Amino acid sequence: MSISLGVIIGNRDFFPDRLVAEARVEIIETLQKLNIRPILLDALDSKLGGVETFHEAQKCARLFKQHADEIAGVLVVLPNFGDEKGVAETLKMAGLNVPVLIQAYPDDLDKLDVARRRDAWCGKISVCNNLYQYGIKYSLTTKHVVRLNDLTFTQDLLNFVAVCRVVKGLRNVRIGAVGARPGAFNTVRYSEKILQRHGISVTTVDLSEILGHANRLTKDDSIVKERLDKIKAYTSTGLTPPDALIQIAKLDAVLANFMEEHALDATAIQCWTSLQKNYGCNVCTSMSMMSENMLPSACEVDVTGTLSMYAMQLASGSPSALVDWNNNYADDEEKCVLFHCGNWAKSFLPDIQISNAPILGTTVGVENTYGALDGRTPAMPLTYGRISTDDTKGIIKAYVGEGMLTDDDLKTFGNRAVAKIDNLQGLMQYVCRNGFEHHVVMNASKTADILKEALENYMGWEVYQHTN
After folding, report:
1. What are the CA-CA distances from residue 40 to residues 49, 60, 130 (Å)?
2. Which of 212, 290, 454, 462 has the fewest CB atoms within 10 Å, counting from its CB?
3. Which residues form the L-fucose isomerase C-terminal domain (predicted)?
4. Helix 222-234 crosses helix 242-261 at what angle (to 10 degrees)?
């Protein structure tokens, strides 16, 4: 999917004009190769399309305002020292409130004469100083100065685009909370009010409404047949009885309608144990299908859990899964078992099939738990993390980190994986001392840096990034 970036090319009139002209051509080519649409001044709109004077800043700001709904972030290119006020004034007047990446060209040692020098090393510091004074948040490239064809800049740009996706998505996300929090799960309590202050909306619905609608459907209704076909196309049904599959399909149809009616991006659904006692199946299959289709769904009405899933999905472009920090892995202090009854996206479960939930079945009857998925996650990259509201402090906080999922032997049921994380014991100390939930989110990527930049720098949240 293409994304649009506003581009500001900084200029100072006592540096060679051709540097601006060359940079304009080069940045357009660079962005287009990466399927990024550049929005910038035409070469005739200002001096070679650069921004230096207040008048040019006004022109660029007007252009950005015209495309405000499209622009996800702004790239500042400094082919020379640039005019720091021109850059800052453009961003101030445009009022986009989007991420900003600052790039500056390096000088060549044999071109430091008056006619060919850039001085962008120094100019970048001045631009950042002005943005800091204006209260405008910005991101930096890995190298202080870097050419546009440098591989590190390509990665910086791709990471920045991911940061833009996360920020834009979180500021407008709509989450459905289906049912009440299970009484035994104080761990998933959260503050709707704190979330709303950050643009995160929660739409609630009583579970009885959802079950009432589901119970009024029959196996002969076209929507039920349609959802049943989708379920069978999604996964093997294993030994699941036909009647249980109909129950699952009816519930799936109602949830899909609820999401469409309220334009929801994600859901958190009451499961343990009301669904099993009052309806007779698990909702895991539906949650897995939603998560696989980039509409993340978390169980136990874990709203900030599904928010974490959504953030990681935006960062990586791939599905996320809600898991429990569940078991030690023998006596290996850097490995642990991740587990849940069975709602992970199919991307994590190549051997997926519908089954039941043995642990839950001990209290509600195994026959009432069909719909849980069974499958083992193989070795793959791992980014993990968790967003939470800290109500006593009135803040949103998070932790993120990276590791690996392994192929180590694991004989159990449900959705399961083995994770290897450096200094896992230190991470568990941090999770416990800071009151985080037993739920964590996993994503098959290496996106912790992207998440930290988006959540801390632009969303203004308190973020801990776990390292060695």
Report:
1. 8, 7, 21
2. 212
3. 338-464
4. 110
